[in-house]
């Protein structure tokens, strides 16, 4: 099931309170959202998910710059760094499949669970890719 269908199923109905005009008593009632309302809700939810992910990538980039300083490498060096991060991501996936153990990541963060470690490595992969683009943009005019 893709994320659109999953979120669509979650926001198909809403609960509202309706006042009975005769008795004045409020009672809950479930009302179905229209298709356009559901699409709007889904877009807002997806935007919040993306913002959260991009914030984590930005925080990782700040951490990398604090740890290593601004890096200016040639493309092959960058690819080596990126592949090292991809390798750590593959290792996290393999550990989950064949027996995960708690471990300390190379930056000293202690990671216990598979989704956390795997996700953390994916954020690092994305952050290195962003650093590669930053380096390219920073040095493009110099050549």
The beta-strand count equals 4
Number of domains: 2
Report the major sheet: 2 strands, antiparallel
Helix content: 55-70%
What is the radius of gyration?
Answer: 23 Å
N-to-C order of helices and strands: HEEHHEEH
What global shape is seen? elongated
- State the separation between the terminal residues, measured CA to CA: 47 Å
Structural class by SSE content: alpha+beta
Mean pLDDT: 80
Our estimate of the beta-strand percent is 5-15%
Summarize the structure.
By secondary structure, the chain is α+β, with helices and mostly antiparallel strands. The protein has 4 helices and 4 strands.
Structure description:
Helix content is 64%, strand content 13%. The chain has helices at residues 3-10, 35-68, 75-98, 114-139, and strands at 13-19, 26-32, 103-104, 110-111. The protein is elongated and about 75 Å long. Strands 1-2 form a two-stranded antiparallel sheet. The chain folds into 2 domains: 1-52, no CATH class; 70-143. The protein has 4 helices and 4 strands, in the order αββααββα. A hairpin with a 6-residue loop joins strand 1 and strand 2. It starts with a helix and ends with a helix. It is of the alpha+beta class and 143 residues long.
């Amino acid at each position: 099931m893709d994320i659109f269908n999953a979120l669509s199923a979650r926001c198909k109905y809403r609960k509202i309170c309706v006042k009975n005009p005769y008795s004045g008593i409020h009672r809950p009632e479930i009302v179905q959202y229209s298709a356009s309302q559901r699409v709007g809700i889904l877009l807002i939810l997806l935007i919040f998910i993306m913002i959260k992910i991009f914030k984590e990538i930005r925080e990782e980039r700040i951490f990398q710059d604090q740890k290593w300083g601004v890096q200016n490498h040639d493309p092959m060096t960058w690819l080596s760094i990126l592949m090292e991060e991809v390798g750590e991501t593959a290792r996290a996936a393999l550990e989950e499949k064949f027996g995960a153990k708690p471990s300390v990541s190379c930056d000293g963060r202690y990671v216990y669970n598979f989704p956390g470690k795997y996700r953390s490595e994916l954020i690092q992969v994305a952050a290195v890719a962003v650093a590669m683009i930053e380096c390219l943009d920073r040095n493009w005019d110099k050549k």
